[in-house]
Amino acid sequence: MTVVHVFEYAFMRNAFLAGTVVAIVAGVVGYFVVLRGLAFAGHALSHVGFAGATGAVVLHLPAVAGLLVFSCGGAAVMGAFGERVRGRDVAIGIVLAWSLGLGVLFLSLYTGYATEAYALLFGEILGISPVNMVVTVGAAVPALAAIAVLYRPLMFASVDEDAARARGVPVRAVGIAFMLVVAVAVATAAQVVGILLVFALLVAPAAVAERLTARPPLAIALSVLFALAFTWGGLLLAASFPYPVSFFITTLAFAAYLAVRVPRGLGRAETTNDVAFRGGGVPADPARLSW
Amino acid sequence: MVELEDAGVRYGARWIWRDASLRIEAGEFTVVLGPNGAGKSTLLKVVLGLHPLGEGRVELDGAAPRRGSPAIGFMPQVRSLDRELAIRGRDVVRFGIDGHRWGVSWRGTRERARTARVDAAIEAVNAGAYADRRIGSLSGGEAQRLYLAQALVGEPRLLVLDEPLVSLDPSARADVLALTARIARERGIAVVIVAHNVNGILPYADRVVYIARGRVAAGAPEEVITTEALSRIYGAPVEVVRDRLGQPFVIGPHAA
To answer: Any CB–CB contact under 8 A between B137 and chain A?
Structure first.
């Protein structure tokens, strides 16, 4: 199939439609995931979702339903822990591993083991079912609406939680609501790239955008553009070459991150003198210590 | 504008401090001192309406304090942010105007007015040179000025600062302190500032509140900052000496 003829196929049109919706959600949500330092927590949510998805398959329910329910449940628990989720990589990692273990158990109970597992873990955007399309769009719209409503208090609480609380922002409720939005973004992104690769759509576009601008609205817009570019580019490349879509999407994400990261990273090494003022900076002159 | 009478606070069954009676008048500069864990931040939480009293009475402008009062500008203890986050000092200042409101703000006349207020607040703390840089990439003193601008941009009558100096190097400490005192004096804003270190801040103080060992002592600096009073509060020998300019200097386990 050549690029020109891509849209003559219904499954390609569906893949583009679903991929577009998912990219917009992931791009917007990703900015706040990075801002709040929740990248690993978001990644773990996808694994919790995997247990739900495989459990749903065993019960002959749509996998996406189990994915959504479990990732939202995990999000509610993480949100309830609030600020304490940040930096709890060990606890999150253990829950993540156990969730994958549960998923393996559920898959062993199901006869169609291999293909279903592969689709859940690495994505099945080219074979996305009508049910998954409806669920994806149906979950994306309220998720974006929630971000629009939460926008200012969420940003305030993400950067300056104590000041936000004093100003009357219901910090805890905002945190739980946002984690639920992350769960929806994760569950929908898993439709496109699979559970193991949600990072490519949820975190990479935002991380690339953050390198290019310091203005929040522009960073969000760029994050969406990059998510769209990775998804569309991946689909078009997969239409031309006989390799998986997820490979192309993740490779584009990685390449973009390298492109914005490496040149600046090399230049930054020379300008570290302002680091001394932050955190561990100790004045060299002992007389100043007694001030 | 703030009054505590026979006030006490507790977490669960444990009393943090009791029998606190103090007044903070409009335009006054009050320094809250005491060792770690004595309940200095808790006093601020009481004034901010974030922590209820276990006993006694507290009033802010004649009414019980409530969360989110526009009369107060609050600057919490600073924490360092990732230096690459896509959020500028200017955005952080802006939170002080409408960060607590739901939804997205759209461009228009009100938006321009808000931007002008943010610009004025940044100007007031002399942070124009770096307000458009990432907040996480700024030095402690630079970031602190912008957080101060955030607290000021809502035009409060009381500025509440929780350990604003603790993470700063000495010259930045002196700068931030002098700036805060000057702006407060010019605008008639009362200041309550929690400090860990006595020395250097006393010249600005109209009133000192010392919290230690479950007790709160309040008064003019010359009443509270004495060898006898401080030794009694701490239950350990503390000495107050005067330098050539007559400024008190505290020597003892809690001066550093």
So the answer is: yes
B91 CB within 8 Å of a chain A CB:
yes
Contacts of B252 (CB under 8 A, 6+ apart): B230, B234, B236, B237, B238, B239
Span A247-259, pLDDT tens digits: 999 999 999 999 9
User: What is the number of alpha carbons within 13 Å of residue A110 lying toward its C-beta?
Assistant: 23
Q: What is the ipTM of this complex?
A: 0.92
Q: Are B211 and B40 in contact (CB under 8 A)?
A: yes
- Cα(A284)–Cα(A204) distance, rounded to whole angstroms? 40
- Give the predicted TM-score (pTM) of the model: 0.89
R_g (Cα) of chain A, nearest Å: 21
Mean per-residue pLDDT, A93-121 = 83
- Mean pLDDT highest for which of A95-99, A193-197, B126-130? B126-130
In chain B, residues with a C-beta closer than 8 Å to the C-beta of A291 are 170, 173, 197, 199-200
Phi, psi (deg, nearest 5) at residue B56: 85, -160
CA A241, A244, A247, A248 torsion-angle sign: positive
- Chain B residues in contact with A156 by the CB 8 A cut-off are 95, 99-100
Cβ distance A140 to A21 under 8 Å? Answer: yes
Instruction: Give the minimum alpha-carbon distance from A8 to chain B in angstroms, rounded to a whole number.
Output: 39
Closest-CA residue of A relative to B161 is A163
Q: Report how far apart, in Å, the C-alpha atoms of A130 and of each of A134, A135, A184, B253 are.
A: 6, 9, 18, 71
